[in-house]
Amino acid sequence: MRRLILASASPARLRLLRAAGLDPEVVVSGVDEATASDDPTEIALELSQQKANAVADVHPDALVLACDSVLEFGGEAYGKPATAADAVARWRQMRGRTGRLLTGHCIVDRTNRCEVAGIVGTTVHFGQPTDAEIDAYVATGEPLEVAGAFTLDGLSAPFIDGVDGDPGNVIGVSLPLVRALLLQLGVDITSLWR
Predict the structure, then answer these.
(1) Residues involved in catalysis
(2) Angle between helices 131-139 and 84-94 in degrees, nearest 10
């Protein structure tokens, strides 16, 4: 069985992969998330590639999966908010509107000198939380740890009216895309089941 590494500290990504029968090692890339691009799609894809390659450089025998998520909202790219005040302002702006959560995925296989990447976008319909609910949510600290200042599998779930597309992508990893990328590398996802 091939060794699989998740180049991410995201517990949500790890939970999704484990629920799908995979049990990757976790190695955080340490890549600085600054990028020259302003385009949300380019940011998500570029950072996933940088993270996967950084970990593959140290673990060349493994299949390395990295992901990076960005919220595209009003034509702007939003990663993790820098401060609680940023998170409050963002939520007040997002409520009642829609955005697109973009997640870049990259798998590097140094053994076969291959790299595959792709991106998935999921439309998110934000609900109408009150100012008090937003303040209470931000006070938990959760929105400071996630792209877009929200999660679909955490405390902000009641404030999301729905999604169009892959909900796993919003949580952090699109399992259908991971399967497709693995197939491009000649790896059947079932061969990685624990």
Answers:
(1) 68
(2) 140
State the residue range of the domain holding 91: 4-192
Q: How far apart are CA 109 and CA 55, in angstroms?
A: 11
* The predicted structure's pLDDT at residue 32: 83
pLDDT of 34 above 90: no
Number of independent structural domains in the chain: 1
Q: pLDDT of 86-140, one tens digit each?
A: 999 999 999 999 999 999 999 999 999 999 999 999 999 999 999 999 999 999 9
pLDDT of 1 = 81
Break the chain down into helix, strand, coil percent, rounded to 5.
40, 25, 35
Amino acid letter, residue 44 = A
CA distances in angstroms from 92 to 50, 80, 81, 180, listed in the order given = 32, 16, 13, 37
What gap in Å lies between CA 186 and CA 16, rounded to an integer? 22
Contact 40, 48 (CB under 8 A): no
Q: What is the CATH number of the domain that holds 113?
A: 3.90.950.10
CB-based contact 81:142 (threshold 8 Å): no
Is the full-model pTM beyond 0.85? yes
- Give yes or no for a contact between 66 and 95, defined as CB atoms under 8 angstroms apart: no
Task: Extract the tokens encoding 40.
Answer: 């949300």
